[in-house]
Amino acid sequence: xxxxxxxxxxxxxxxxxxxxxxxxxxxxxxxxxxxxxxxxxxxxxxxxxxxxxxxxxxxxxxxxxxxxxxxxxxxxxxxxxxxxxxxxxxxxxxxxxxxxxxxxxxxxxxxxxxxxxxxxxxxxxxxx
Length: 128
Hints:
With about 130 residues, the protein is α/β, with parallel strands linked by helices.
């Protein structure tokens, strides 16, 4: 009986947490592009430096530099109820940004796992 109670408790905890995990994902280029095209009111965030951003970025992205000491306070200005899509150059900074955004309790967050480099190599559109 004790085992059954423990099992049910752990299972319930897992189920209650699963929604938050399902809304925070690292995506391939194709899946990231699908999210951009299917979401409404998304916040597309390029976390690279302004110099990298100005050299080329995904259309409609805004730049919030991960290396800026004010990064976290700048991210907190975003709407937590609207989906966020993050990317950097190759996936390192955006993975760290994803953790920060998750810690700040944003509702729905996606990250481009291969970054802008992977996006560009796939022949996807960019702005300069």
